[in-house]
Specification:
With 152 residues, this protein is of the alpha+beta class. Helix content is 24%, strand content 40%. It is globular.
């Protein structure tokens, strides 16, 4: 199975990086205006909703929360929203955010795995993750995000 894996070192505490992953305001800054919606209870839904092809409430990604360990791990299944399918099959993959303190910084690992071999969102995900990870690092370290222009 294919796997996307990225490791970043961020000049911020695990608490600051964790906030970038779960705080609706901070998530909105790193995910191009999309908010995270979740009770953060394992087994319940998790969604990223925001501006897109279906208007201001476009469902970009959704899944089921698999793990929620504050300041350490956020893991969930991943499916793309209906506007991305274009009549195709909606394959499921898995996203794992892992945090670990390293000296005075935080190691952030993103693993996007359990891909179906024919999932067409693999390539676009690999491209998008670099911008999202860069925004997390910049937001945690400086309080702002990067200007990538139009991301579409």
């Amino acid at each position: 199975m294919k796997e996307l894996k990225y490791e970043f070192y961020i000049g911020a505490t695990p608490e600051q990086v964790w906030e970038c992953l779960i705080s609706p305001d901070k998530v909105k800054q790193i995910y191009y205006g999309s908010s995270i919606r979740s009770s953060f209870v394992v087994g319940e839904p998790l969604e990223y909703v925001g501006p897109g092809a279906d208007g201001s409430e476009t469902l970009h990604v959704y899944g089921t929360l698999l793990e929620f360990t504050p300041r350490e791990a956020l893991r969930f299944t991943h499916k793309v929203g209906p506007s991305y399918l274009k009549g195709g099959i909606n394959y499921e993959s898995r996203i794992s955010w892992l945090l670990a303190p390293v000296g005075g910084c935080t190691k952030l690992t993103l693993i996007h795995d359990e891909w179906h071999p024919e999932d067409p969102s693999y390539g676009p995900s690999d491209s998008a993750w670099w911008q999202i990870l860069s925004n997390i690092k910049t937001l945690a370290e400086t309080g702002g995000t990067l200007d990538f222009g139009s991301w579409k």
